[in-house]
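[Discussion] Sanity-checking designs against the backbone

I'm trying to build intuition for which residues belong where. Below is a structure token string of 460 positions. I'd appreciate it if someone posts a full sequence so I can compare it with mine line by line.
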């Protein structure tokens, strides 16, 4: 069922129940009030008749009947009967001839026990009222038809039913109009989103000025489009740069082999060509391995092998690995605030990926430091591991800090230094994958500090 019809149905049902409760309550309390009023009037008449009958020296029964007949009250088919302690009728009055109240001994006895009993007989309502006087106990039965009250109650019933039906119809029409206006922004957003494709992700949805739910939805979709646009742009740049980096060594290999095959050469010349080809193949292999790691770091964390690992043990692998890559590189480690409990040195993550991230940062520090030395400082706090990688290189200009984590990005001043431009980008992806952060603090001609932060296991 479309949302619009569900809103209309829900709105109508809510109004249905509210009107039903209100109209039912009005009718119930009005009916109850009429019954109480009728009982009070019948009881007062019974009391009046009882008092007149007890004054027999002043009011005889014929006079009481004349008084009853002359009493003007808005009740029809009035009837009054009096019974003594032997349940014998001692007095009766009826508006209509041969109209009487059917009284039973059970009713009379019940009136003597309770003092007053309300009952119905046909369309009449009656009260059996007991008055006790020494030697002159009477049970007065007063009954009548409340035609005006019932007529008013019937009119009220018709009015409430009419109001109920009109209210439902009005609520249905109001729900129809209300839902159309409510869902109009959704329809507009849907139409705008439908017109957005991969080639025009720069287009955005109009958010409007009202800070309502539709504004939040539009803003959320625009934020999503921003992220998608950035991802597509990053993908395009990555594919373009990767293609360029891979095509360069392939072109060199192809050209060297073609040149070497143009004429017969000496063994030494063939050996030199083969060595150059091997170097290019190693370059391509390293680039492919780096791209594979980059793809792994860009994937879903659920697809990685996540374990509890000690952060200090990962860092202690770095100096030997750096020395193996280049004997001129050196690394010093410094651990601050190490806890006695080894469990407080644990972090959730993939050991090889974290090692790759730390190693890439340290390799960069060694490359650009004049003495090829990097300092690694681990600081442990209850909730966070902070790893600072410090070098004494030329520094990074403020305008370049935001770009250094882009894939294949290299500053003009560093293009002469070997590398693919993927190290920092790969490290950034790995840190994000582990809910961590990388911040850069750099001073020109003084050095750069990369600050890596990771949450302690159990503090995610």
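Best answer:
Here's mine. Compare freely.
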């Amino acid at each position: 069922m479309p949302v619009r019809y569900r809103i209309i149905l829900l709105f109508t049902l809510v109004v249905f129940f509210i009107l039903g409760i209100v109209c039912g309550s009005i009718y119930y309390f009005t009916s109850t009030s009429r019954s109480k009023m009728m009982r009070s009037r019948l009881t007062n008449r019974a009391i009046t008749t009882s008092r007149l009958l007890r004054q027999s020296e002043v009011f005889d029964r014929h006079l009481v009947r004349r008084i009853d007949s002359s009493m003007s009250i808005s009740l029809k088919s009035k009837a009054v009967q009096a019974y003594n302690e032997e349940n014998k009728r001692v007095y009766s009055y009826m508006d209509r001839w041969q109209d009487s109240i059917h009284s039973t001994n059970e009713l009379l006895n019940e009136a003597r026990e309770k003092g007053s009993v309300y009952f119905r007989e046909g369309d009449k309502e009656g009260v059996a009222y007991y008055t006790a006087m020494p030697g002159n106990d009477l049970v007065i039965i007063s009954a009548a038809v409340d035609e005006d009250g019932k007529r008013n109650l019937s009119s009220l019933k018709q009015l409430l039913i009419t109001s109920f039906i009109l209210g439902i119809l009005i609520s249905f029409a109001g729900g129809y109009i209300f839902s159309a206006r409510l869902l109009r922004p959704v329809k507009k957003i849907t139409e705008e989103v439908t017109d957005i494709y991969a080639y025009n992700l720069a287009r955005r949805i109009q958010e409007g000025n009202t800070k309502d739910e539709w504004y939040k939805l539009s803003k959320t979709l625009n934020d999503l489009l921003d992220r998608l646009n950035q991802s597509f742009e990053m993908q395009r740049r990555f594919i373009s740069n990767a293609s360029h980096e891979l095509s360069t060594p392939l072109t060199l290999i192809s050209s060297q082999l073609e040149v070497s095959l143009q004429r017969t050469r000496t063994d030494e010349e063939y050996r030199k060509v083969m060595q150059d080809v091997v170097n290019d193949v190693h370059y391509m292999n390293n680039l492919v391995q780096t791209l594979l790691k980059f793809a792994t770091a860009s994937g879903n964390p659920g697809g990685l092998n996540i374990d509890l690992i000690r952060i200090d043990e990962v860092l202690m692998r770095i100096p030997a690995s750096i020395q193996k890559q280049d004997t001129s590189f050196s690394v010093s480690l410094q651990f601050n605030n190490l806890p006695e409990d080894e469990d407080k040195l644990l972090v959730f993550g993939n050991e090889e990926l974290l090692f790759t991230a730390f190693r890439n940062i340290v390799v960069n520090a060694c490359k650009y430091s004049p003495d090829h030395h990097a300092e690694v400082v681990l600081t442990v706090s209850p909730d966070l591991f902070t790893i600072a990688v410090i070098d004494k290189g030329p520094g990074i200009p403020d305008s370049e800090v935001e770009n250094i984590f882009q894939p294949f990005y290299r500053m003009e001043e560093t293009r002469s230094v070997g590398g693919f431009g993927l190290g920092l980008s790969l490290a950034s992806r790995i840190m994000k994958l582990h809910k961590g952060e990388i911040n850069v603090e750099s001073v020109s001609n003084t050095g750069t500090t990369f600050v890596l932060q990771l949450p302690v296991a159990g503090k995610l």
